[in-house]
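The freezer alarm interrupted the setup, so I double-checked each line after restarting. Inputs confirmed:
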Amino acid sequence: MALLEVKNLGIVFGGLHAVEDFNLSLEKGSLYGLIGPNGAGKTTVFNMLTGVYKPTTGTFSLDGKKLTGKSPVEISKAGIARTFQNIRLFKNLSAIDNVKLGLHNQMKYSTFEAIFRLPRYFTTEKKMNEKAMELLKVFALDDEWDTLADNLPYGKQRKLEIARALATNPKLLLLDEPAAGMNPSETQDLMDTIRFVRDKFDMTILLIEHDMKLVSGICEEVTVLNFGTELAKGKTSDVLNNPEVITAYLGD
Amino acid sequence: MAKKSIKLSSTSKNNIVTYAILAAIFIFVEVWTATGNISSLFKGLLVPLCTYAILAVSLNLVVGILGDLSLGHAGFMCVGAYTGAFFSVLFKNSEGPEWLRFVIALLLGGIVAGIFGLLIAIPVLRLKGDYLAIVTLAFGEIIKNIVNLLYVGVDSKGLHISLTNSANLNLEPDGRMIIKGALGITGTPNDSNFVVGFILLVITVIVSLNLINSRTGRAVMSIRDNRIAAQSIGINIAKYKLIIFTISAFFAGIAGVLYAHNINSLTATTKNFGYNMSIMILVFVVLGGIGSTRGSFIAAMILTALPEMLRSVGDYRMLIYALLLIIMMIANNNEKIRSFEKRISLKKLIKTKKENRGGNV
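Predicted 3D structure, all chains:
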C-alpha cells in the first residue's frame, strides 16, 4: 500500500476551482516532484495536505489513516512535515531552538516541570540538545547552533527549515520550492542534501520546484499542474519532454 | 570543563547577568537603608518598586514572549489585590502566625487572578493585535467598575454579597463589612515590606526565565515568531496561549496582594487599577525592550523612582519626566545609539583590560 494516497482532492475559493481532482499515490521512499506554472495550485495542494486549507472535495490518507479535514497540529502529529516557499523560521530564536521546537511532540515534559526545574526537565533537555545537534550536523549547521535564525545566510535558513521539519519525525516531507533564490552551486548542494535526507532518514519526499535542473536531477516522477488540474504525470524525463507541458510553461 | 563553557548558550549567559543585577539591586538597597542615608520618600517607594517590577515582568510574558498586546494587566492586579486584602481582613484577628496569613493571601490572590486570566484568555484566543488590546482594555475597566459596586460582609451566618448597597447585605448585628463598595477595603494589615516584595520579584523572575528557557517557552515564542510555522510543526496554539495568560495574571495578582498590604485603605480608582496603570506597565515593558525580562524590571524600577528623584525641580517634575521618557524611548530604538552601546559594552572593556594585563605580564 502506498504511503500517501490522495483521491480527487479539490478546493473552491468563492467559485474559483483552485485545485480540482488531484490524485497522487506515493510509495515509501520515493522522491516526487510537483511542478507547474505560477498560480497552478501547487502550494494550495501542500496547504490542503498540511491542514491549512480544508479541501472541498476528495480525501487523502497517510499510511492508511484518513487525514482529510484534520487540523495542522493533528496532521503534523500523524507524520506530515513541510517547509515553506517564503521561509518561515522562528526568526528571534537560535538555530538549535528552531530544531528543538521540531522535537516538541517527540520529547515532552510539562510546564510545571519546567518552572520548578524538576529532573525530567534536565534529562529531556539533554536528550533534545543531543538530537538537535545531530540534526544540525547533518545540515552542517552545528557551528551556528547559537546563531539567531534571522542572522543565518539564506541558504542556511532553507536548510534549517528542513532540519526543523525532520525533527518532527515525519513519514512524509513536503518541500515547497526549496531551491528558490539559490544560485547554481547552492542548488547543487541542496540536491545532494535532499538525496542524502531521503537515504539517511528513509524519507518520502514530495517537492514543489521551478528549477528544472533540480527536478530532473532528483525527482523520479512528477505531476504537472496547470490551472488547478493535472496536465501530465509520470516519469520525469517523459513528462518534461511532453509538448503540452512545454506549452503550459512557455506558451504557444 | 572547557567544553561545558563553550556549550553555554547566549541565553544562559544572559540569565546569569539578570540574576547578578537583581542581587546587586538588593545589596544596594539594603546598604542604603542600613546606613540610614535613604530618604523617607524613597523608603515609601521600595514596595511599589517591587510591585511594578513584578507587574512588568509578568506582562512581558504576554507582550514580549507571546507577542500579544494586553491592556488589561491592571485588572488582574485589581483582582489579586481585592482577593488578598479580603482574605487578610477576614482572618485578621484569627489565631495563627501572621506570615502564614500573608502567604495564603498571596497565593489566593495569585490563583484567583490566574483564574480570571484563564477566563479572559478563552474568548480572546482567536483575536490578535488591536482587537485583543481592546478586549483586554475593556476587561480591566469592567473589573474596576464591578469592584467599585461590590459590598461584602460577614457575620455568624457566613458571607453576604451585594452589588447594590450595604443595606442589602442584611448583616446580623455581630456582622462586619469587609468590602464597602467604592470605599473599598480598609484596615488591611501592613504585611508588605521591601524584603518580601523583593523575594516575590525574584520568584517572578526565576519562574519567568525558567518558563522562557523551556519547551513551553519555546512553543510560546514560536507562536509569536510565526503562527503558521508553529502549527505546521504541531504546536497547540490555544493551549500555550492559555498557559501564558494564566501565569501572567497569576503574578499580576501577587503584585496586587503586595500592593494592597502596603496601604491602609484599598480602593479601585482609575489611577491604580484603571487603564492608565495598564498603559504604564506596558510602557515599562516596551522601554525595557520587549521580550527582555531584565529590561522590564529595570525600566519599572527606574520609571517608578524617577518622579521622586525629580522632586527637586518642583513643578516641572512631570514635564521633565515626560521628556526623559521620550528621550529614553528614542534612544532605545536608535540603531546608531545601539551600535555605540555595543562598542563600549562592559564585556569589551573587561576583555581589553584583560588583554592589556596579559601584555604587561
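Quick read of the result. Residues 119-138 of chain A form the longest helix (20 residues).
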